[in-house]
Amino acid sequence: MSNCxxxxxxxxxxxxxxxxxxGASRNYSHCPTCGLVFVPNEFLLSGHDEKKIYDHHENxxxxxxxxxxxEKLATPLHQKLKPHSTGLDFGSGPGPALxxxxxxxxxxxxxxxxxxxxxxxxxxxxxxxxxITMSEVLEHIYDPQKNxxxxxxxxxxxxxxxxxxxxxxxxxxxxxxxxxxxxxxVRFYSxxxxxxxAEHFDAEVTFPDKNVIFLKKLS
Length: 219
Fold this sequence. Notes:
Blueprint: E1 18-22, E2 27-30, E3 37-38, H1 47-54, H2 64-80, E4 86-90, H3 98-104, E5 108-112, E6 129-135, H4 144-153, E7 155-164, H5 171-175, E8 187-188, H6 191-201, E9 203-209, E10 212-217
C-alpha cells in the first residue's frame, strides 16, 4: 500500500497534510494546522457497510457498566446546566442511552442519528439548544467541518457542546492504539484539535474527565 498523497483536512480544510501512519488495510493522514488525524476518503466505508457494523452495537441504558461510562459525560454536564435545559443528542445510535440518562436528570432531550433517528427537523429547532451531546460519535463523522458548523449554529450563546471521544496522544501512541483499528473510526482528535476548534468557534474548551471535552459557546 502506498502512502496517501496530501489531501484536504476534513476539519480545517488545510492542504498542508502529511502521511501519519500506514495500517494493514488503510492509511492515516495528519493535519499540522488543527492536529486532526484522519483516514483519507478512499478508505471510507459505504453507508450500507457502516450501518451493518452499527447494527451490532448494544447501547442499553439499563446496562450498569455502560451507564457508568456515559456518566463520565452526563454528570459534569448536568452540574453545569440549569434545571430543565433543552438538549440534542447527536449520533444517538441504535439504542439511545445518553438521552435517557439526561432525561432522568430532568432535562428535555431530542435525538438525531443519520441511520436510526433521521428526523432532520431537530437540526433546525425553533429555539437553539442549551446543550448538544456527542458520545463516541465524533470519530465516526466523515465531514466534521460541515457537521460541527451546523450544530454550532443551533447552540445558544453560553451553551455547551459536550463530547466524548478517545484522544490521540501522539504518533508513537497511535501506532499501537487499538482505537484506530475500528473500521468506523475515521477521524481522531487530540487536545490540540479541540484547542483549535475553540479558537475557530470562539469557544472556551475544558476537559472535565478523560476523553471528555466541553466547548462553551461564547458568542
